[in-house]
Amino acid sequence: MKRREVERHVQEALQALLDDKLSINHAFRYSTDYSDERNCMELELKAIEKDDPERSSPQSIRVLKLVFLHDCNQIQIPNIFMPICMTHERLGKRTIKAIHDAGAKFGYELFVVDMVQSFYERLIVRGAVSMGHDSVQITAVTDLESDVGSRRHKIDDELEGFDMFSLIRGNKS
After folding, report:
1. Which of the following CATH numbers is that of domain 2-142: 3.40.1350, 2.20.28, 3.40.630, 1.10.150?
2. H/E run at residue 80
3. pTM
4. 3-state SS class at 101
């Protein structure tokens, strides 16, 4: 059945991308919930931090929630949050891309919904299509791989230094 196949392919893509990184500091599990009246399935990835002596109790994190709307061939992401230990690795963007690519093979469109304004704006800059003030459609041309808007230095880049005390005195050099 196409519905279960797209769900399985998306989950396999997520597992290939996230499981190794997530298992370093977290216990985690995928859970599914089927709703016949909406003809949809929810896939959720929750993680719990492994024992940390600095915390009194482990922190539970909803890393990802997907909603498959099979009647309209859509996948929606109402929640995506990478744990702090997994930030600055582009895993959020790579996760969105993996979901898009896996779903697109079955003719499914991907939407990120119920976003905060700053995330919405960042996805618009990357070429996502606005679907309202808090939702976007991810397409094949949405740039989820490059560093749009944030320059990262490479080791070979020449960094320009400055004299902080000259700056305080009003000198620009």
Report:
1. 3.40.630
2. strand 74-80
3. 0.76
4. helix
